[in-house]
Each structure stands twice: as C-alpha cells, then as structure tokens.
Amino acid sequence: MEEPKKIDATILFADIVDSLQLANYLGVDRYEEVLREWYDITKHVIENCERLALSPIMLGDVSIRGDELCVFFRSGSTQADIRAAMTVAVETKVGWLLSETNRQRSDEGKPPLEIGVGIHTGLVVEAHRPEVRANVTVIGPDGQQVKSGKGGSLLLPARAGLEGFPISIAKRIEDCAREGRFSKIIVSHTTHKYLGETGLGVECDYVGKEQLRGVSQHWAVYEVKGCESWHMFQAARDDATVARLETCVNADPDNVWLLGILMQVHRHRNEAKRCMATADRAIRVDDTNAYAHFYRGMALGMLQRPKEALQDFDKALRLGSHHIMVRVYKASALIQLGQLGEAQVECVDVLKMAPYHPSAHYNIACVHARRGDTTKAVYHLDQAAGFGGPHIVKMAQEDDDFAGMTGNPSFANLVARWDTGAQTNAGNESG
Question: What is the CATH number of the domain that holds 341?
C-alpha cells in the first residue's frame, strides 16, 4: 500500500442557493430540468478551463452530487490553481445568471436564482484505499432480507482519494457565501493572499472573521466584488443576451455583481455612455466598489475625458484595487494629459508586476515617442507586439503619439518586420 502523499490544493465548492426550497416548489420533473442545465453549465466551464490550460483538472477531481459542485485544483502551482478556481467560480456564476432558468424568472419579474461558491487553499492528503470486500445486506420491497451475491459481500476496488481539513473548510466557506452581499463567491484568507499574483485583477471586500460551522477558530474571509469574464465577450456580441442581462438587473437593481457584468458588456460593445451609466448605478449602491470606479474611469476615457477618468482610477486604487489594468488605464489618461513623468512611473510599476504586459509596454513606448527617444520607443513597441500581437504596431501607425517617428528608419524597419510576420502567420493559417 502506497504512503499518503501531501498535496497543496485549492478546493472549490458551489451549489444553488436555497435548492431545497426550490426542489419542493418546482416539483421533481421541473427541478430535474434545472439540475440538467446546471450540469451542462458546469461541464462547459470546466472543459473551457482545461482547454485554456489554466490548470489541469485530473479525472476524479470533479464531482457533482445533486446541485453541489466540488473541484480540486492541484497542478503544483498555487497561483495557477487559484487562477483556475477563480475562473471556474466566475464563469459558472455568470453562466448560471444567463441560464434559461434565470431568463424565465426574469420574464416573471423575479430576481435570479443565485449560486454560492466557497474557495480555500491548503494542504490535503492523497490517500490510497486498498481493495476492500464489504458485507452487503439487501432489503426487498416487502422489508425482508434478500440473499445477494456469493457470500453476501461486495468487492470495492482500490482507489486514491483526497482527504483533509481544508476540504471541510472550503465547504464551510461555501455555506457563508449564501449570506454574501455581492457575488456570493467567498474565498479564505489563504486563497486571497495569492490573488494579486494570478493576473486576474479580482476585486474583493473583506467580510470579517467568520465562525464556520463545526470549527472552533474564526476564519478571515473575503467576498469577490468584480472579475473579468470570458462569457462577457460572447454576450457582448448577442443583443438578445444583453437584453436578458438588463432584464436580470432590473429584477434585482441593487445587485452590484450583476451591474458589474453589465458594465463589462457595455465596455466590450464600446458603449461608453451606457457603461458609465451602469457604473454610476453600481456606485450609488456602494461607493466603495473599486471595480465600478475602474469601469467608470474606462468609460470616461472612451469619451475623451481623461482628467475625470484619472479621478476614478485614483479612487479605485485608494479603495484597494488589485486590478493591474487600473494602473494601465491610469497611465493612458496621464499620457493624454501630457503628464509623461507620472505615466512612466505607472508603466514601470506595472512592468515590475507583469513584465510581459503588452499594454504597459505600449504606454511606455508612447511616453518615449512623445519625448523624442526613438530607440526606447521602438524597443517597447517591439516588446508590446511580441507579447500582444502584430496589430499593436498597426495601432501605433495610427496613433498621434508616434506621429513624430513616421520617417524614422528604426520605426520603419519595425513596421516592415511585423507586417511581414503578420502576413506569414496569415498565410500559415490559411494553408
């Protein structure tokens, strides 16, 4: 028998809030339809997570019992595991909000059915259970014992399973999520301390030290207030989905999580005024919402109002925003205002945290181009294109910040090189 192995893992639990009352209200057949849709959404999210290689999810590390989803992430990288867990949490949440079940509720003027999510990171044990023969007693429909199988026993095959206190903590944290004010996605303090290293830009609100059921000590927990979602890129292309989301918001107007999703949609659709109006609604509900101030700042930037945008970016940072793009957009606003020294400081800070960030390289290239330092401008623009794609060089050709470099040989060589690379890639894809 193999020795138990200790594994650093991030554990996620999620289920539909008030599912017991829901099952009683809907009846067996309708509730089965709801569960089937829930299964389909979670399956789609986990498959996408694996496809994007966020973290490999091993067979047996995902289980769904009734409406309860449990996933273990154990790739060997804590940051990668937390990134994958947070992605699964957010995408499952958004997918469920946009589900057919919730569309029907919105049409009836009812608030959407919520899901609660709990995430915790800790050390678990992979224990190998040996092959076991268990005695079995089968009771027939008349209540009498039925003789079953040779010797009345059942052979249980050997298997590996994950055990440990962190699993119980993750489940207890998921219980807390039902009382959440925003997303109902609650993470433990051990998960939260790594969130800033995932690159997701997740905004959280400190809930406090909670007394978890059956646990003697109190646990510090945080609730997610905002996070980017790939569902939003899909939803932004579909007018019907946007309309469905707006109906959900109208049915639950103080739900800042829903408002945050709608902000993302309007941003992806380049609807600056609608994005700002939605951000204003979220701020009226909760002025400490850093995520809403960030999106309001982006909307103001789209409307060519950099001075006002800067105020919102600064407020988002004062409120403790960990979203790296706040600093990227703040640098853009500073460049528009001609405050190049401050813009460079922001870019340098971003590149310390994320050396491969294309937008930070692009912004610092703008700073150097406006100062007339062609060598540094070309270097950072080349880095931006390398990390973000050839379209960035095309964008620079149309950007007034690079107008003074039009006749420069280094800039011309950069443009030609990336143009050739883009054409080669296009040829390879078509072939």
Answer: 1.25.40.10
